[in-house]
Each structure stands twice: as C-alpha cells, then as structure tokens.
Write a sequence for this structure.
C-alpha cells in the first residue's frame, strides 16, 4: 500500500476535490441506476396485477405442459405422412409465390417512393404512407381478411404474404434506390439515353444485388410466417399443426414441429448460400 | 472513317467484338436459365398453392368492395355521431389495447432477463464448457424458430385462455431471438477489460458485471427496445388463438364480418404500433448514435 501511495500526486483530499464534478455526476447516475430498475419492476408488478395473472395458474399449467411433453415422445406421423408432406410443400409454395409477387409489385412502388426516382414529392408521400400502413398490419390479419375474400385455402395465404411483404420490400427497395449513385444515370441520359434506359442501365445494376438479397431474406422469414397462417385457414402446415394441437395428438405435433424446423433450416442454408453467391459475385469493384 | 478517331485494325476489332458478343451471349444464357428455373418453380408452386387466377379475378371485386365496406360511414354533417357510432366499443377496445401493450412489456422483460442470464454462458469467449454452449445455443435456436403462435396454441391448451399464454409464448420467442443477438454482442467485445478484472481476482460473475456488461449494455438496451416494437405487433395477434389482448376482438370482427369494427380496431392497432415505434426509436437513438439495420 505504501508503495502505491507514494505514486499518488498530492493527498487524497486534493484528488477528491479535483474530481468533484465526476463524483457528483456519478451520484446522479446512481439515482438513475436505482430508479430505472425500480420503475421497470414497478411496471411489471402493475402489469401482472392488471392482466390478472395468478401464480396459482402457473403450476398446474406447467404440469400440463410436462404431460404434453411426455406425450410428444416419440414423435410420430400418425399415418399422415403424405398429408403432412403435402402441407409442407404447400407452405413452401405459399412462401415462394407470396415473396415473388410481393417483389414484382414492390419494384414499381419503390421507384415511386424513392426520392431520386419519384415523379413528384406528393406521389412519394402518398406511396410511402401506403407502404407504412400495409406494413403496420400483420401478415396474419391479412390472411384472415383474404380468407374472407377468396375463401379458405393456400391461395389466401399467398395473397396475404404478397400484400404484407409489398410494404416491407417496397420500403427496403426504395431505400436501396435512394442509396445509389446518380452519376451512372446522368451519364446515360447525357449520352442520349432515355429516362427508362437510365433506370435500366444506370440504376438497376446498382440495386439488383441488394434487391435479390432482400428477396431471399424475406423468403426465409416467410417460410416461418407461412407455417402459421394455416392456423386461420390460409393453407399450409399450420392448419395440420393447429388441428393436432386441438385434438391433443402431441406426438404428431412434435413431428410437425420437427418438420418445420428441418424445412426452415434447409431454406436458411440454401438461401444463405445463394445470397452470398449473388452478393459476392456482383459486389466486386469494377 | 474520316472522324480522325483512332480505329483499331480490323482483325483486332473483330476479335474484341467476338469476345464481347460471347460475353453478352453467356450472360443472356445465364439469365435465361435463371428465368426458366424461376418459371418452373412458379408453376410447381402454383399447383401446390392452388393458385387460380380466375378465382382471384372473380373475387377481385369482392376484395375492393371489402375495403369499401370496412370503411366507416362518415358524413360531415353528423361527424361526431358517426365517429361515436364507428367507435361504439371504444372503452373496451382501449382496455384490450392496453392489455396488449402490457403483454408485450411483460413478455419482452421476461425474455430479456432469460436471454441476459444465459448469453454469457453461450458466448465463445467467456464460457469454458463447450457442451453447455452448444446446448444453450440450440435452445435459443429452438425458441426462435418455432413460431410464437404455435407456442401460444400450446400454452392456451395448458394454461387456459388469457394473457398468460400470450406472455409466455412471446416471451419464449423473445428469449430465443435476443439470446442469439446478446450472445453475438458478447462475442464481439474487447477482451482486455475482462482479462484485467480477472487478473485482479474477480470470478465469473464479477467479470461479467464489471468488464462485459458496460461494453454491451447500450447494444442490449437497443436490441431489447427493437424487440419490444416487434412484440407489440405480435401481442396484437396472439389473441387470434385466445391468448389475450385485442387480437381476439379483431378475430371475431373479421370472422363475423362486422365491417366497420374491423377498420376501427385496425386503426387503433396501427396508431398504437406507430406510437410505440416512434417512442422506442427516439430512446434507441439516444442510447447509441450508431444507426442499426432493420
């Protein structure tokens, strides 16, 4: 200790005085450090009271869950393997078609919504708000709406994913377009190209890798969403899953969940490879 | 050629042109193959998904009229009365919306606490046990890959109808996603402070508290807030399967074709979600000046 004290410049009181400001601020911060958690826990207690959650409910529920888990082992197809496989194929088809149609619709909307390609700022404003509203409504709500419009079945699911993804993809595409360099398009227009040629040869090559990556990414996440829209009757594996849960056939539930996990992992792997291939190939500086 | 531009000898030009057209032809061929593959996939997928464009065209008028019908009947002359008519169930809906937001809050909090406790045991640079790391990472993966609505269905069967099932379902999903993100945040820290604290005699918990946590706290808070935004959306739909919140009401309204109720509830959800987004975004920007993707 004495050795270290020798290294101190001046006496402790002087050091304390010199760093008064630092210490005072830390007092304030300490108050925030205590007040923050207290507020968080307070809100938690209030929520539990407001939502009327009793802990008496939890223990028997966990017992039930344990029973479910026991019933899940071993997973079994229950003789419905062809049905499940077909439903899984349906799910993948819904995700694929939904994403693709969303991308097709989103490109022109993105051109209208991007600052550097929009014909008029008012158009941009309207399209952006429209995309926001579409994005604000969950895929499952769209699915429910489309089940009401075109009837039960996977087609409603395709439409639901197509519409709700148009919002997300449109926003991302327009941001990608806004991030492009203007020089390429200017060059093409200056050398006699039309406006459309400028878009095709000046803009498209810049945004294509980004757009392709985002489409693949959405496809991955849509495989997940497409597994659940069946719960409201919009086709795919979700229908089977909710049926089996309702009839307490938990061995089949386990099998379907494993199937979903395997399918999602496969899609993730493939599309990750594809995405890397597209971005890796095109993004080399030229 | 009287332009005075330097012109390459005919032979060399031909060679270059041939190589250029070969290049273009190859790219065209690649694009064509890609298009054919995509078209084939569309056909296969179309068969699987029972896409009938005729069906769509047939129902297109139904779709547009649907959106026409869910619009409220508002007239300028009787505006207040019309709005009151439109929002006849405002008090009850507002309570359910509040429920929804609280469900998201409790779920986010529980998921975050779980993820925060386990992330340091899953991070490669801190945890020593390979087996433990592997198990926790698979657990995170499982929790985030199984859709929250599936959990909600299961929990409604186990715990009964009500917000508890929704909280647990969203909480588990949050646990999985945040666990992964937190682990990645921990894995990217600067290890010098950890070594410093450890060499001064600190144990695992103390090292996490004084060397790891200060480095990742802004990131953690930002991820959590982002997750909260997502969870507000999720908790507005877990009611579809009876797991609490405003979703139940919306489900009934859509299923039973109470048209104006649909638009009224949807508008309330959209407003609530946008307000949450704006507020949390503001806090996130204050927490970290770095712009986050997504």
């Amino acid at each position: 200790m004495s050795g270290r004290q020798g290294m101190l410049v001046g006496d402790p009181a002087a050091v304390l005085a010199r760093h008064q400001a630092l210490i005072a601020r830390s007092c304030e911060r300490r108050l925030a450090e205590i007040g923050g958690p207290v507020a968080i826990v307070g809100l938690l207690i209030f929520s539990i009271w407001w939502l009327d959650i009793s802990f008496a409910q939890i223990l028997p529920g966990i017992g039930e869950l344990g029973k479910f888990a026991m019933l899940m082992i071993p997973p079994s197809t229950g003789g419905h393997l062809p049905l499940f496989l077909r439903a899984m194929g349906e799910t993948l088809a819904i995700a694929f078609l939904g994403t693709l149609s969303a991308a097709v619709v989103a490109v022109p909307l993105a051109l209208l919504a991007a600052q550097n390609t929009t014909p008029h700022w008012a158009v941009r404003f309207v399209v952006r708000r429209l995309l926001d509203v579409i994005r604000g409504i969950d895929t499952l709500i769209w699915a429910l709406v489309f089940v009401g419009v075109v009837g039960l079945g996977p087609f409603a699911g395709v439409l639901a994913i197509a519409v709700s993804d148009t919002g997300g993809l449109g926003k991302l595409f327009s941001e990608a377009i806004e991030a492009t360099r203007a020089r390429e398009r200017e060059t093409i227009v200056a050398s006699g190209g039309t406006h459309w040629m400028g878009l095709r040869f000046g803009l498209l090559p810049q945004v294509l890798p980004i757009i392709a990556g985002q489409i693949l990414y959405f496809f991955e996440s849509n495989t997940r969403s497409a597994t659940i829209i069946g719960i409201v009757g919009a086709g795919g594996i979700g229908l089977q899953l909710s049926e089996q849960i309702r009839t307490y056939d938990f061995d089949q539930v386990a099998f379907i969940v494993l199937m979903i996990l395997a399918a999602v992992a496969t899609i993730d792997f493939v599309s990750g490879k594809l995405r890397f291939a597209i971005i890796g190939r095109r993004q080399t500086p030229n | 050629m009287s332009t005075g531009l330097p012109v390459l000898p005919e032979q060399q030009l031909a060679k270059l042109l041939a190589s250029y057209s070969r290049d273009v032809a190859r790219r065209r061929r690649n694009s064509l193959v890609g298009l054919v593959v995509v078209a084939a996939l569309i056909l296969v997928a179309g068969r699987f998904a029972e896409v009938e464009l005729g069906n769509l065209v047939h129902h297109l008028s139904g779709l547009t009229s649907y959106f026409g019908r869910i619009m409220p009947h508002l007239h300028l002359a009787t505006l207040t009365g019309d709005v009151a008519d439109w929002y006849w169930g405002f008090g009850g809906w507002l309570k359910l919306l509040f429920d929804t937001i609280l469900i998201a809050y409790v779920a986010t909090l529980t998921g975050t606490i779980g993820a925060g406790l386990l992330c340091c045991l899953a991070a490669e640079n801190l945890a020593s046990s390979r087996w433990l790391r592997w198990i926790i990472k698979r657990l995170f993966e499982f929790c985030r890959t199984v859709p929250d609505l599936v959990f909600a269905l299961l929990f409604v069967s186990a715990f009964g109808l009500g917000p508890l099932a929704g909280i647990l379902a969203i909480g588990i999903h949050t646990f999985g996603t945040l666990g992964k993100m937190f682990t990645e945040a921990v894995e990217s820290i600067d290890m010098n402070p950890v070594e410093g604290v450890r060499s001064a005699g600190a144990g695992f918990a103390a090292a996490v508290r004084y060397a790891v946590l200060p480095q990742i706290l802004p990131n953690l808070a930002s991820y959590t807030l982002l997750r909260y935004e997502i969870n507000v959306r999720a908790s507005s739909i877990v009611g579809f399967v009876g797991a609490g919140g405003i979703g139940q009401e919306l489900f009934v309204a859509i299923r039973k074709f109470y048209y104006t109720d649909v638009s009224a509830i949807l508008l309330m959800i959209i407003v609530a979600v946008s307000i949450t987004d704006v507020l949390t975004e503001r806090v996130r920007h204050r927490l970290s000046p770095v712009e986050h993707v997504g």
Q: What stands out?
A: The radius of gyration of chain B is 28 Å. Confidence is low (pLDDT under 50) at residues 290-294 of chain B.
